[in-house]
Design goal:
467 residues, mainly alpha, 2 domains, 18 helices, 67% helix
């Protein structure tokens, strides 16, 4: 198994780095393709079959897409069919069977690995060919290499063919400093995952499983911790794969830029899951008309774009409501006279606090198993008396007081890191310039903190892998 959280992935990535610089640049895309296939086969061979068929149809249609609308439409359906059939149809069929007893055919494969990612990447390839931004490829294997990239297939970031594939052909040379920086970024990603996300997951899972059993302080703490769990988990994965890419001399799109320091909802979406925001803007929002239209239509375009975002995350009503709320909030924000003033000076602190509160509230709905579960959770915050959040740690699944303290310390480190980055402080630059004895002391401290603070038992895969 080569899941990113497994030791096998570290060995796999290290072997690839070693082979990469021994391989001729013209052959590196083939080495990457082989790595993608090995990675995919180790996790989901059925999913690889779906990807191969979908990419074959898209590749064939893309050759004629620039001048034949019918070929473009067929290619678009080929890219989206697995998503529509294996994700949304299955959910709808199951829901109809539960509600009205109507039994519909349901395919056995529920959701191939990376379904939401390779489908949208194939759409972007096809649309870019249609727009003549890139030329249609003669080689199907290169399209497969692009769509199956092991660094982003699990949960992004979204690549663009015209930006990703040329890098695989570039004559990149070994650079010890670059490889070191990549390794440091991987460590930071794994630290976020095991020291923050996996420990916070224990508290979050307990609270959302039965909100009626906890008081309002416990519920508030758990939903705030969910925001940090999701951020540490998702950005931790991104740091790991971007670190591996950096060691290979490849640049993947950044996905996060201190999102919890955003002062508006619009700014939040320019800092959170940035590659998805960019995809939605280029392939949904702008084709709908973007902002080059009347205010009412612009607001409608925003809401529809975020509904698509919610639908992409899942077929449940919680995801649609979450997407709808973010679209409405951003549309309303555009009409506020003080929307620019709140991003400057001391007023920015109010904007940051307000935007983080919006994030916590809307992502509580996102995390809930159903609308009724979300209503139970909010009702508990409003009506369940008590103040046991800091005292009765065992009720939320934490085994010791030390567990609780380490969780808070991990969140504090995450916040401090983002504050430093926001102020332009680059810790790696300072570490690289430090004397060698001091660097090794830091390295030992990093290893110790990883082993001491890590939650190594019970930590699952990455959250966004399900999307």
């Amino acid at each position: 198994m080569l899941a990113v959280t497994s030791p096998g992935f570290v060995v796999f990535a290290a072997l690839l780095v070693g082979l990469w610089y021994r391989c001729k640049p013209a052959r590196r895309w083939q080495l990457m393709l082989a790595a993608n296939v090995v990675f995919y086969l180790s996790l989901d061979w059925q999913g690889l079959v779906v990807l191969l068929v979908s990419s074959l149809l898209v590749w064939a249609c893309a050759k004629q897409a620039p001048h034949k609308t019918a070929a473009f439409v067929v290619g678009l359906l080929s890219a989206l069919a697995p998503l529509l059939l294996l994700k949304y149809y299955v959910a709808a069929a199951g829901g109809l069977q539960q509600m009205v007893g109507l039994r519909l055919w349901q395919p056995a494969i529920l959701q191939p690995l990376g379904l939401g990612y390779f489908s949208l990447e194939l759409v972007s390839y096809l649309v870019d060919v249609r727009r003549k931004t890139i030329l249609p490829q003669c080689s199907w294997a290169r399209v497969v290499c692009y769509a199956s990239c092991f660094l982003s297939i699990t949960q992004g970031p979204f690549n663009r063919y015209g930006e990703w594939m040329p890098q695989l052909d570039a004559p990149t040379q070994w650079d010890s400093q670059r490889v070191w920086r990549g390794a440091m970024r991987c460590w930071w990603g794994y630290f976020k995952k095991v020291a923050v996300a996996d420990r916070a997951a224990v508290v979050v899972a307990a609270a959302f499983a039965d909100p009626t059993s906890f008081d309002r302080t416990q519920l508030l703490m758990a939903t705030i911790l969910y925001s940090f769990q999701l951020y540490a988990d998702f950005s931790g994965y991104t740091d790991i794969v971007l670190g591996v890419g950096q060691a290979l001399g490849l640049s993947l799109p950044e996905n996060f830029r201190q999102p919890f320091l955003s002062a508006t909802v619009k700014e939040l979406w320019s800092r959170w899951h940035m590659s998805l925001s960019r995809w939605l803007k280029d392939y949904v929002y702008i084709p709908l008309g973007g902002s080059r239209c009347g205010q009412a239509r612009r607001d409608g375009n925003l809401i529809l774009t975020f509904l698509v975002s919610g639908l992409w995350h899942g077929a449940g009503l919680t995801y649609l409501l979450w997407g709808f709320l973010h679209g409405v909030l951003q549309a309303l924000e555009n009409h506020l006279p003080w929307r620019h003033a709140i991003t400057k000076g001391r007023a920015r602190l109010v904007g940051v606090a307000g935007t983080f509160s919006i994030f916590v509230i809307t992502f509580t709905i996102f995390r809930a198993s159903s609308i009724s579960n979300a209503l139970q959770y909010f009702s508990g915050i409003l009506h369940n008396g008590g103040h046991a959040a800091l005292s009765n740690y065992w009720e939320l699944g934490l085994s010791t007081r030390q567990d609780q303290i380490l969780l808070f310390v991990g969140v504090a480190i995450l916040i401090a890191s983002d504050l430093l980055r926001e102020r332009g402080v680059r810790l790696l630059d300072h570490l690289a310039a430090a004397p060698k004895p001091l660097r090794w002391i830091v390295y030992e401290g990093m290893v110790f903190s990883f082993l001491f603070m890590g939650q190594f038992l019970g930590g699952g895969g990455f959250l966004y892998a399900r999307y």
